[in-house]
Amino acid sequence: MQIQVLKSKIHRVKITRQTSLLVGSITNRENLMDAAKVWSRNEKVQVVNVNNGERLGGTYVIKGEEDRSSPSRQVCLNGPAAKKKPLLEIL
């Protein structure tokens, strides 16, 4: 028997970028991933819309570049999920 356990949570982040050029994933800044203890690139994550409870399903995480001038809670939806959620939606 295999049991899946969610070990971390990143709560109330804003979608600040979207790109359909990548095959589905979510890009997070390195400091945000470290704070949530998401250590490995391509770790599986669940994406849920806080406003309506919609689950975008499981995808994998990509470590984004550090940008000192922007807030630490920025994320980018990639692939088909980018077309489902508007910019500035809160996950």
Oligomer: single chain
What form results from the Cα inertia axes?
Answer: globular
Overall average residue pLDDT: 79
Instruction: Please give the count of helices.
Output: 2
Structural class computed from helices and strand pairing: mainly beta
What low-confidence regions span 5 or more consecutive residues with pLDDT below 50?
Answer: none
Cα-atom radius of gyration: 13 Å
Order of helices and strands: EEHEEEH
Q: What's the number of extended β-strand segments?
A: 5
First-last Cα distance: 31 Å
> Strand fraction band?
25-35%
Biggest sheet strand order reads 1-5-2-4-3
User: Can you summarize the main beta sheet?
Assistant: 5 strands, mixed
* Percent range of helical residues: 10-25%
